Amino acid sequence: MVSQSVCVLSGSPPSAPEGASRRLLLYQHCIPLCESGDLQTEVASDIIGLLMLETHNLPGPSLAQLASLFVDAIKLGKMGSGKSLELFPTVLTALAATEALSYGKGELSGEEYKKQLINSLCSSRDVPLAPEELQFLVEKVLRMFLKLDLQEIPPLVYQLLLLAAKGCKKQVLEGIISYFKEQDLRQKEEQKDGESMDVEVQSIPQDQLRHVEGTAILHIVFAVRLDQELGREFLKSVKGSQGELCPFSIALLLSVARIQRYEEQLFDFLKGAITKGFKDEHLQQGSKFLQDLLPQRCSLAQMILDTVKNSVFGWDHVTQGLVQLGFILMDAFGPKAGPFGKTATEGANATAKTPTQQACRLGGHILLEGFKMHEPIRGEILEQVLNRLVTKTASPVTHFIDLLSDIVVSAPMILLESSSKVTETFDHLSYLPLATVQGLLKAVQPLLKVSMSMKDALILVLRKAMFSSQLDGRKSAVTGFLLLLKNFRVLGSMASSQASQAISSSQVQVDVHSRYNSAANEAFCLEILSSLRRCLGQQADVRLMLYEGFHDVLRRNSQLASSIMQTLLSQMRRYYEPEQDLLPPVKLELCIGAQGDQVFLQEPLAHLLSCTVHCLLWYQGMRRSARPNAGGSDDDDDEEEGGFQDELQSILESITRRMIKCELEDFELDKSAEFSLSSVGVKNSIYAVLVMGVYEVLIEYNFTKANYSKSIFEELLELFSRYNKLSEILKEKSGKGKSSKSPRSLLSMGFVSTLLTALFRDSAQSREEALLVLRSSGDFLRYAVSVALQKITQLEETGHTDGPDGQNTDKTFHHLCDITSVLMWRYTNIPCAVEDAGKKEKRCSVSLLCLEGLLRIFSTGQQRYPARVAQLLSAIDLSVEEGSDHGPGNASVTEKTAFYIRQFQRALFTQLNGGEEDFNSKEAQLLVNILSVLSRQLEPSSQQFVQMITWTVKICKETSFEDIAFSKGLLSLLFSLHVLYKSPVSLLWELCQDIHSQLGDIDQDLEVEKQSHFAIVNMKTASPTTLLVLSQVGKVLDEVDWLITKKKGQLVPDRLSSGDATQAAGQQDPVEKALTLQLGTLLTALNELVQTALPSGVCTNTLLGELSRTYTILTTLVKYYIQLCSGQQGLLPARVEKLVKLSGSHLTPQCYSFITYVQSGELAGGGADDKKKKKKEGEATATASAKLLRETKAIPNLIYSIEQYEKYLITLSKKSKVNLMQYMKLSTSRDFRINAATLEAALQEHDNSQQTIASQEPEQSQEPKKKRKKQ
């Protein structure tokens, strides 16, 4: 047979057409013959070998026919022995080398023809396959992915999806996703390490991989559209593998979400997964126990941002989903309106801390990055942001304003293309809330510099708004005009550092003078000023905005000084009494308006005066600094502009002089004045606030102008004494139900900083005599520190302060640093302990105010300036002897923080060593709070952190003061540190033993062994400590519950393999071991508490709630092991059995005893105390206890939880073949009980005194009942 074939081949030259056709005929007959099985194996092998040698001589068309023969035979199942298939690869190789082949109506290269064949061959749709065969085929093809070139993957994915119509849908989808996930990881690793040195792994080009991924996503989305079953399987697969998401699967999710029927489900899933990811991260960051147990995973937020970056490679089908996801996150997790429409102000520097804030911030990042990268979606993003600013008037929109601001800063020129959308939004300005208008204008301000049309549109809108019937509309107009004045500087204005910072904060580097000439710009600004002058006749709120904005305008646009000062002067003249002999010097009656019976403020006089003073002082300082360089050319200007300077100075001096002479009777505000809610009372209240404000402004002005003159400081003290007298009257007169909070101070932050430095740190000999005048007044010192405290509190709450430069973050921070330094010096150098006995109370309050100020400053620093905490700590300048050897210098934040922690530790130690009679509780609480705030800056892995926790434990063990607030603060500090160091369960156990020891046992006949791990736990502090301990128990239970949920999530994919069974038999999983130990120690701790005679009410209810929750979590753990034992018979770890034993034989019986104790009614005190109470009090207590018992659901909930736990233990016993119920005792808590001793006592009491049955029976029925229950 072989020799005949050789003869045919020899006589058929491949170059001749007849020879070629004879050769093809030979191949076509030999291949089926070899498959038939009629030939011997050796003969068939020889023939195939011969044909293989001659294949490369065949022409292209013959090779194509041969290849088609093989494909048809495979598809129709005609391949018998499969021997001839050895020839197929050779045919394909020869075919690939062919240059051109006719295919259909056109031509294909041999390589392309080969791909078509493979494609049709891989399409196994037409081949009937059993489920096992289908699964084998899918696995085989998925394994082939790694061996194929990237370009060959998309057609294979397409064929696999067609094949998935027969079954194995989940396997196909998961296989494709895991392949691309692996490729992504490999590509990222190669990118990170540079070019890979491994010869076997070919470096993956990023753009090629992304394009292939994009095509694969399109194929999958197309298949899901056509096959609903595949879509459902995809949803199920995605939801089942929450922790296994990757950038590719997220992109796929977002693409599939464009199909309407899956949209809502997929976005809900993504939203849930994102918040869950942030919550998990949050939980892990707050617990050392969890950090050690589970490694940190790559965050889902980072994967989503990676998807945004990847989408730049032509993934248009993903971008729409990204936009939708971004807005869903921002809408769902943005700030919410608080009570009365208020919201917690988040400053620009506030960091996102909670999971919801982080999710909202992520939405903003997605949209910002999407805007930068994808031109087609820019218009939609901008339109949706602006729409939300206009429509969401009831809820805060700060997050959308921040996003708009980021967009403007990062891509201003791109935004100019959509300027029409911004100008459309301007039309709604007068109807929007003021905060939204301020944010919007501030955000688009850089665009106004380069777009004339936008600026003109805004001015038109603002002019209309100036005459709006709505007050907010007019306030919006003032806001807009002030912003324009600040940012369109007239040529020749001094370029203050503040102005340059504000202008260069954008990438728009366009000088305004290149677009507008100087004269036009000046005319423009003066025109705005004339519009603003009209506001001086409007409501007080509108005028107030103007006065608060003029100083900033002046700083940025110094050429407008003359106009602004003239405006202020003319306004001052209206309220100034020019007659020098008349008192008071201001016309207060003109500042008040009336409408019917209602009296209201018309002119905020104190703010007008404050604005005038600050503008005048700045103007004079600017003139002084400019004069040395100006030579004599400035004289004319002085004559021209000096008029208003002189007049304003004389007015201020006159007001000062006459205000000192004024008595309170001159303002009709003496002690007999009425401050009720009547019209007279309201008028007097307004007068009082105005007069106090005027005094404050004059104090600042005169101190600044005094140049440390003793006589002026004496006058200043006179001003303060009148201010103080009025302040005391206001406090005294304000009704008991009202807040006695003093009005917001008009002193500027900069002045407060200067004043405190002068009062406490200025040691210059030349100034000492003058400053002694101020230092001698304890009230003035306390006032100065309390104003500083007020300013710091405002900064913490809102991110800015009142007065000039209050909005300037850098200047405010600089003042904050100065104030911190002064307060720290004052507290450390003049503590309460060294004050004179006579003046102790007043001086001490100054020290306490300093300490409170420091607490506020440190928390403000962490909240508002997290990146500059080191700078803030460096600003504190301690005494030389402390700072010389151990000063922070250029140390890290942790070292600097530790240094200052030591100072406060010393202060607290001094307090504690002074004995309980000298103990100042308020100061100690403040010190503990400061230590809590500062300890957050320590790195938990650092030596300083360990020292801090050691010191805290030592103080808790040695301090035995009976001060509830102090002990709560100290223990809260201990818990917050301990949880970042190691699990707190052993600490909780020790504290529970101490509480049991202090409060005694629920069985009064049982004497508790006296132990004291922590001296801070005593009779007085034991109950509050119990609540703190139970709160910590709740957190530990949260962690355990979270771990069990994690393990249950891994159970389905991980535990099905038989390999895990052998592993579990040999050794318990570390996570399971850890959570079993946690629960074991926790049960022991609760066992102590449940035997303790806790006082009624909150303590017992909270304990019952935590016990109920403990049993619920034990039930969850039992269910987990039931699932585990279903697949692996009899593999219950010994530790779990011990845990069940502990709960059954120790805790559960004590729980039932505790329930009886709670129900008995003898809660707060012993029987002896109760007997001393009056009959009415006893009845009231009994009624209250009965009501509490009726209302509480804690006891039935606990009994239900215990019974559920026991129910599932029976199931686990059957599954694991371990008798766990041997440790459980049957409950009698629901039984009907007749207590013989109680009955006898009641009858005896009845005989003795018929009248006292009602009050005595409950008392006598309790004690025996307890004795019977305590086994």
Would you write up a description of this structure?
- With 1271 residues, this protein is an all-alpha fold.
- The chain contains 56 helices and four strands.
- The strands form two sheets. The chain has a two-stranded antiparallel sheet. Strands 3-4 form a two-stranded antiparallel sheet.
- A hairpin with a 2-residue loop joins strand 1 and strand 2.
- Helix 1 (2-10) runs parallel beside helix 3 (41-54), helix 33 runs parallel beside helix 35 (765-775) and helix 41 runs parallel beside helix 43.
- The radius of gyration is 42 Å and the shape is flat.
- The N and C termini lie far apart (100 Å).
Name its key features.
1271 residues; mainly alpha; two-stranded antiparallel ribbon; two-stranded antiparallel sheet; 4 strands; flat; disordered C terminus; FANCI_S4; DNA polymerase binding; FANCI_S1
Q: Briefly, what is this?
A:
This protein has 1271 residues and is mostly helical. The protein has 56 helices and four strands. It has a two-stranded antiparallel sheet with strand order 1-2. A two-stranded antiparallel sheet has the order 3-4.
Mean pLDDT: 80
Which secondary-structure class do the elements indicate? mainly alpha
Instruction: State the strand order across the main sheet.
Output: 1-2
Share of residues in helices: 55-70%
